[in-house]
Amino acid sequence: MKIVGCDFHPKWQQVAVFDAETGEIGEHKLKNGDGEAERFYRDLAAPALVGLEACGDSQWFVDLLQRLGHEVWIEDAAQIRASYVRKQKTDRRDAGHILRLLMQKRFPRLWAPSAAERDLRQLLIHRHKLVEIRTRVKNGLQHLALNRGFQKQARLWSVRGRAFLKELPLVGWTARRRQDLLELLAELDRQVEELDQSDRGSKRLLKQSARRRSRPVFSHHLVTANTHRAKRSAHTHAG
């Protein structure tokens, strides 16, 4: 079996590879865009263990490794930084450090969602973005009503409230804006309702996955955010 420490970058990656049979360690710098990295992992006897830091734009790479039969471990970048003895960093040293943690069984592995769970998250993100757009549309319609001296608040979105909006005496581009906003609102309501039907099942699955994971980490964004907060907190206490 081979163990790979990978310092991943969007355009290329630095890897350190340990061969358990020979005890040898090799180093490679691989380009991602020209297929060099894919060829390397296709030629690598499966299953190999590949460790890399949680980072953005790497999902295609994780999917590739899993399709090829390799085991992928994602690590907590904040804990990796904390485990460094020397502060000076290079790509070769990073790959070697990841490999060393894997070999010593000190790799700070994160829970990783399944492909189905990742897809359901996209549903939730998509719904959230649509609701944000719908809120801006509603704010625009409320503004039109307020400019005419009417304060209906949530009642504006009832059947009677929307009929009232249509009957407001508006002219020119103001009337055109009202028409476009009402059409947008109706379409957004339809899309959000459609997503709500699927959202019920997705929430159940995400709750189940939350109980299974060993660490409360959903993505590298949360890891990064926690790291930044920790740095700010340490700076505040030091001051």
Task: Please sum up the structure shown.
The chain is 58% helix and 13% strand. The chain is built from eight helices and five strands.
Question: Can you characterise this structure?
Answer:
This protein is α/β, with parallel strands linked by helices. The protein folds into two domains: 2-103, YqgF/RNase H-like domain (Nucleotidyltransferase, domain 5), CATH 3.30.420.140; 115-212, no CATH class. It is 58% helix and 13% strand. The protein contains eight helices and five strands, in the order βββαβαβαααααα. The protein has helices at residues 36-43, 59-67, 77-82, 91-103, 115-147, 159-167, 172-212, 220-238; strands at 2-8, 12-19, 25-31, 49-53, 71-75. The protein has a five-stranded mixed β-sheet with strand order 3-2-1-4-5. A hairpin with a 5-residue loop joins strand 2 and strand 3 (25-31). Helix 5 runs antiparallel to helix 7. It is elongated. The model is unreliable at 214-239 (pLDDT under 50).
Order of helices and strands: EEEHEHEHHHHHH
Our count of domains comes out at 2
Q: Which class do the helix and strand fractions yield?
A: alpha/beta
Classified by CATH, the class of the largest domain is Alpha Beta
CATH fold-type name of the largest domain: Nucleotidyltransferase, domain 5
What's the count of strands?
Answer: 5
